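Trying the structure run again after the queue cleared.
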Amino acid sequence: MTVTEPDVTVVVGAYEAMPYLVECLRSVEAQTLDPARIEVIAVDDGSTDGTGEYLEEFAARAATHVTVLHQANSGGPSSPRNVGLGKASGRYVFFLDADDRLAPEALERMVAMADRNGTDVVLGKVEGINRVPPKAAWVQTLERTDVFHSNIKFTLSAQKLFRRALLERHSMRFDESLFTGEDALFTMEAYLRADGVSVIADHTCYYLVGRDDGKHVTKSGSYTLRFDSARALMNLIAEMVPPGVERDKLMVRPFLVTLLPQFGPKYVGDSERVRRHKFELAKPLMDAHWTPEVAVRLKVDERLRLQLVAEERPELLLEVAEFVKSKKRPDAVVEKRGRRVYLAYPHFRTGEAGLPDSIYLAEPREAREVEGYREGAASVFLRRVTRKARRVLRAA
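Done. C-alpha cells:
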C-alpha cells in the first residue's frame, strides 16, 4: 500500500535489537491509530543478529507502510535516526528505540494532542520496564507549555512526537559526532524552537525497556563522552537563550544531570589520573557557564560539589563525595530564629577550607525538611541567598 502524507512517521533505528525488536514492532501493529495514517521507516544499522531480516519480514506483512533501510554500522543512534528522518513523509515524527515499546493508544493520543493545541512537540508519559524512567515531567497533563514554565527540561530523550515541519524548517538533525547525549541536544533545540509543547501525564504512552544483556547504549561509553555531551548542551543553551533567569533555569539541567554525576560516588572510585582529567575537562565548562544564579537553584550538596570543582579543589571534593556516597545525613544548623538552615556537609565552618556559609545555606524546598525551620517570606529568602552566592562566586 502507499501512503500520502501519513499523520505520523515512526522512525526505528535498530542495531543488534533481537529479540526486543519483536515486541517493539508488535507495539506498532497494536496502535489504535488507523494503519493508513502511520508510516514506519526502519533503519538497520549494520546488525548481525537477524535484526535486518526480521525488519524485512515485518515490512512484508504489516498493515501499515514500512520502509526498511540497511547501512553499515555507524557506532551510535544519530545516523539511523537522521536517515529515517530524511525519508519521513508524516506530519509528525516519532523516534522509537528498537528495544522499547509504544502503548496501544500512544500515537492516537499524541497526534490528537498536537492537533488540538497546535503544539510542535508532545511528550507522552513514560513508564519503565527494568529501568527507572524520568518522573519530573509527568506531574500533570499540560495542553500547552514551554521549556521555561515546566519540568520538561529533565526529559530530553528523543522519544517524543515532533512536528516534522518544525524539524525541516530549522534543518534539525541529530549530532553524529556525539555518542551520548545526542538526543538531549536535539530535543532541547526542539523545545526552544517549538511553538508550544504538550505533556500527556495521565496516560502511559511509552515503555522504556531495560535490556537483560546490558547492551543499552546509555550504559556504555567513557566518562569523557559525558563531558562532550554537557559541553554541547551548555553551548546550545548559551547560544539560543540570552543571559538571565531563563538561561539559568535551563543550565541547571546539564550541570545537574550530566556533569554532577562525574563528581559523586563514582568519583570516589576513580584513579588520581581520572580525577585530574575530570577537573581538566570541567574547567572550561565551569568558567563559561557556572554562575551564582545557577548555583542557588541546586541543593546544598550539589552546589557544594560543583563549587569545589569550579574552585579546582579536588582534595576537598573527595571528602564531600565520600560523605555523599555513604548516604549520611548532614547535621542541620538552624539560626536566625528558624529562618536560616545550614546543612553541615564536610568543611562547613572550618578555617582550613575557608568556604563561606552561603554555600551551605539551604533554600526553602530543602530547608522545609528540617524541624524548626520557619519559611517566612520565600522571595526575600531567595534574594538574600542569591546575593550571598553571587559575592562568593565572584570572589572565587
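The chain has 15 helices and eleven strands. Worth checking whether this holds up in the mutant runs.
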